[in-house]
Write a structure and sequence with these properties.
- The complex is a heterodimer of chains A (about 160) and B (about 140).
- Chain A is of the alpha+beta class and about 160 residues long.
- Chain A is built from 4 helices and 7 strands; from the N terminus they run αβαββααββββ.
- In chain A, a hairpin with a 3-residue loop joins strand 2 and strand 3.
- In chain A, helix 3 packs across helix 4.
- Chain A is globular, with a radius of gyration of 15 Å.
- Chain B has about 140 residues and is an alpha/beta fold.
- Helices cover about 45% and strands about 15% of the residues of chain B.
- In chain B, helix 2 packs parallel to helix 3.
- The radius of gyration of chain B is 14 Å and the shape is globular.
- In chain B, about 45% of the residues are buried.
- Classes of the chains: A alpha+beta (about 160), B alpha/beta (about 140).
- At the A-B interface, helix 1, helix 3 and helix 4 of A face helix 1 and helix 4 of B.
């Protein structure tokens, strides 16, 4: 299941970033959350979170540095940098994780029904616990863009 | 013909991109109203006559499925076609949208072509056919 979910997450985030944000990306197979945390300025990181339940239960988190999120928002909303507001930024980050999550499950198994929660923005600078609880699994994907790296993290249980 | 459409989504950026995609689809003269959930949408629908409702599924207060159900119970609102644009991709949920009365379905992430195709199926015509390619070239969402 872990490999299938990782593959679905990889395809999903590629489709979302390329189709909706016109981004050129490269996804690292062997990225680790710990090195992402070490190399990223966490104070300038927006973390959007969405919970899910169904055959798998857990949550996805998308970690986007401020400069990349601003560019994504400008593209998404067709506004200039000066016109980008905090509402635009949080809305873009929330919608991105919403699309990644829904698309992941469509790719994983379109016969299964997963219920998604409402996306939320976590407190500035917060990052997921690197230690997962017993009975849970985690997957981290590092997404390289020309302007820096984005992280996608899933914690789930069967 | 100029259409009046209601875009229902709790995400402001998503409402913005849906509106731009519809305009890029050739519906350049369309007029748009917006709502952030099903409840807000019903308030708008009780005061305005609309040609089409485009709704997300997963929203707080009242989701897209509940909105469709409320519209179908109403003698006037049940005539307005509803296009669902959502991240929901399970076959069961998509079938349920259609069974409950949705006129069409587009899965996020979407291309302007996917939106255009569903709009033509539902509305049957494009206001300004020539504008599609021009607008699509400029659509930098």
């Amino acid at each position: 299941m872990k490999e299938a979910l990782k593959t679905a997450m990889t395809t999903s985030i590629s489709e979302v970033l390329e189709t909706m944000f016109f981004m050129t990306i490269d996804i690292s197979d062997d990225a680790e959350l710990s090195s992402f945390v070490t190399t990223t300025t966490t104070n300038n990181l927006t973390v959007s979170n969405i919970t899910f339940s169904g055959p798998l239960s857990g949550n996805f988190q998308l970690m986007i540095p401020e400069n990349i999120l601003k560019g994504m928002t400008q593209t998404f909303m067709s506004v200039t940098e000066e016109d980008v507001t905090e509402t635009h930024l949080s809305g873009t980050a929330s919608e991105a994780i919403n699309m990644v999550a829904g698309n992941t499950f469509s790719i994983l198994d379109d016969q299964a029904v997963f219920d998604l929660g409402i996306p939320e923005i976590l407190e500035t600078g917060s990052l997921p616990d690197q230690e997962t609880a017993p009975g849970t699994e985690n997957i981290f994907l590092g997404i390289e863009t020309p302007d820096g790296n984005i992280g996608l993290y899933a914690v789930y249980s069967v | 013909m100029s259409y009046k459409m209601l875009v229902v989504d709790d995400s402001l950026p998503m409402r913005s991109i849906i509106i731009r995609s519809i305009k890029a689809s050739g519906f350049t003269e369309a007029e748009f109203l917006e709502a952030a959930n099903g409840k807000e949408a019903l308030e708008v629908l009780r005061n305005e006559w609309l040609d089409l409702v485009i709704t997300d599924y997963n929203m707080p207060d009242m989701n897209g499925m509940e909105l469709i159900q409320e519209m179908k119970k109403d003698d006037i609102l049940n005539a307005i076609p509803v296009l669902v644009v959502t991240t929901e991709g399970s076959k069961q949920k998509v079938d349920e949208f259609i069974t409950r009365g949705a006129a069409g379905y587009v899965k996020k992430p979407f291309t302007p072509e996917a939106i255009r195709s569903e709009l033509i199926k539902i509305l049957g015509e494009v206001e300004d056919e020539g504008s599609f390619e021009d607008s699509n070239d400029d659509l930098d969402f």
